[in-house]
């Protein structure tokens, strides 16, 4: 399967020429063909790099949603060993949009939890396109508590258009499930490393995305709502999603500049989908390093630092004259 | 002061769930009955004919729940900033919207918090108000909610939050989203101090508010008829094509599905809350949790907080 995004086309055209020359060269290795293919390779790399260095927010959304981009199960298999997938919330069912279970990263046991969107149509439908139902969040909740019980760091991978908004989800308490996860993660007594690997939208992403470290892949997005949903709120029309993407400051560089995330993880040239195994290796070493550092922090301080980290976030000012400090009578 | 900026009464009608007919009469937003305005106000804006609970302002709520003259609002001067520089193409910018909202509502934000007594019991009370920016959760609302919980911890007060909100404020983007985590953490800190949190869900409670502090109450009380849910009815119908059955996402629906403890009419709320606080107040010893003492100093003037956001 090959998927070329609109703005990738100039590079893809070079790629097509290059492939043809490579084929000719294989059959007839002349010095002229060799020189041509070396030029084309360089052109392709330069063009790809230029395109990816200048992605607009809406183009970044396309990359974050790229069907060939590595997803949670790819990381579970590629960056972990001994992954055992756990199913079910023990109350209602098993949600396929959230996967998780214990595994090892660099030999160390961790609890891995992430959203998985799926690739082929059937799998995507089965996984509700990565939009978890309440039972998915409750499964995640169960895994967070297991991690605490066995002293395992938690690693979460966010990749969701948002929590599922259906009548059944409402009947089973979607808002309640999300809130419970926020509260539990806020005080969990093991290190929590959160990574946006694709699309991290709304409370549906945040409900597995509260932790000591919050990382984003270079071309992932993190937003209060999907650009389509924000557009239908602000413009009353979802087709203004590209404009919403511009306004929302949802790219990793924007969010780092606003101090809302901790770190950006570089992607291979041309995005994670251009070289999934390199991306998976990068994430493995990054996460392993983060966990090593967090494990040196005493639990009490880990939890109070996490509280302070979230407590500080916000942007307001206070009109003079100030009120009396709220802590005194 | 506030009332100077209020729109002429009839304009508020649709929003507030009732229609004002000049001076003496009010028309119920549900049964359309003409009601004598003073009686209606004395009944906390509940229709005596059909029981419809019209939306309340912050001062209406204070009068409903707290003992007379006990309310002391804290940090009323917190004001929103525009952390993203939100300027959507072809639509009013956040800065413009903030100015309009203040003019239309006469308010400076969508929440107030403070201390007071309820049937003699010391409480920390926070109230969200649909009248300003649809009660949306942004930095100021998130900060006031967090401070309400920290006030509870510092002064050993039960915390009551009355929610009414359309959800997270899109115009503050991720800054608004993270208020969900911040307020949920504050609820946990109160719990670690073993103080009760009574959450009152009123019409409407939706989105990021439902998905954070509002549904984390030790007891969740809903007002009759209130729309309560995560995704709003419009979003559900647009996204899934499902047509919602009548009565979906009401307080009564949530009671039936096990999501709220009680649906309580306005006139009974104060007594129930007082009873609950007294029932819960046996656990008076502060717990050992580090987050319980994690309150930040506040009240001093400052521009906060995401560095680089100024």
List low-pLDDT spans of chain A.
Answer: none
When the domains of chain B are counted, the total is 2
Q: How does the major sheet of chain A shape up? A: 7 strands, mixed
CA-based shape of chain B: globular
CATH topology of the largest domain in chain A: 2-enoyl-CoA Hydratase, Chain A, domain 1
Question: Which features does this protein show?
Answer:
heterodimer; A: alpha/beta; seven-stranded mixed β-sheet; 8 strands; 15% strand; globular; B: 310 residues; alpha/beta; 2-enoyl-CoA Hydratase, Chain A, domain 1; 2 domains; three-stranded antiparallel β-sheet; 10 helices; 19% strand
Notes on the structure:
The complex is a heterodimer of chains A (329) and B (310). Chain A has helices at residues 9-27, 31-53, 57-64, 72-78, 121-126, 134-149, 167-171, 174-187, 202-206, 227-234, 241-248, 252-257, 276-294, 299-312; strands spanning 98-105, 108-115, 154-160, 192-201, 213-217, 221-223, 263-265, 315-318. Chain A has 329 residues and is of the alpha/beta class. Chain A has 2 domains: 8-54; 62-312, 2-enoyl-CoA Hydratase, Chain A, domain 1 (Alpha-Beta Complex). In chain A, strands 1, 2, 3, 4, 5, 6 and 7 form a 7-stranded mixed beta sheet that branches. The longest helix of chain A has 23 residues, at 31-53. Chain A is globular and about 65 Å long. The termini of chain A are far apart. The relative contact order of chain A is 0.12. By secondary structure, chain B is an alpha/beta fold. Chain B has 2 domains: 1-54, no CATH class; 56-293, 2-enoyl-CoA Hydratase, Chain A, domain 1 (Alpha-Beta Complex), CATH 3.90.226.10. Chain B has helices spanning 9-16, 37-42, 58-65, 94-105, 139-155, 173-192, 207-210, 233-240, 251-256, 266-280; strands at residues 18-21, 25-28, 34-36, 72-74, 78-80, 111-118, 121-128, 158-165, 197-205, 219-222, 262-263, 303-305. Chain B has a 7-stranded mixed beta sheet with strand order 4-6-7-8-9-10-11, with helices on both faces. In chain B, strands 1-2-3 form a 3-stranded antiparallel beta sheet. In chain B, helix 5 packs parallel to helix 6 (173-192). The longest helix of chain B is centred in the middle third of the chain and has 20 residues, at 173-192. Chain B starts with 8 loop residues before the first helix and ends in a 5-residue tail after the last strand. At the A-B interface, helix 7, helix 8, helix 9, helix 10 and helix 11 of A face strand 5, helix 5, helix 6, helix 7 and helix 8 of B.
